[in-house]
Amino acid sequence: MMQLRQLDMKRITEEERRMASVLAKKEEEKKRESxxxxxxxxxxxxTINNVARQWDLQQQRVxxxxxxxxxxxxxxxxxxxxxxxxxxxxxxxxxxxxDSGLNNALQGLSVIDTY
Length: 115
Prior knowledge:
Strand order of the largest sheet: 1-2
Radius of gyration: 33 Å
Number of strands: 4
Shape: rod-shaped
Distance between the termini: 85 Å
């Protein structure tokens, strides 16, 4: 645009060049904003789908655990989440120990309950 000197046999003025440049910048900014909004919408959609999938997986795990508990004998003396005083997670992928703050809080509660 800046190199254009004539259009339809009319000379292009500096004012017309400046106005065209300003309009082109505005159009480019609109395109960038539109693209940015599209990306945000896509991120939101993906996040919602991921959360929904995680929710479904968690619900299936809970249902499986409940089904497994129903199958066990009801006279089992142990809590299914506690073995030898150590706390285990109901979800198999969370087999690591509890974080120390939570573990200390749980121990503190058990100490308070004994008094």
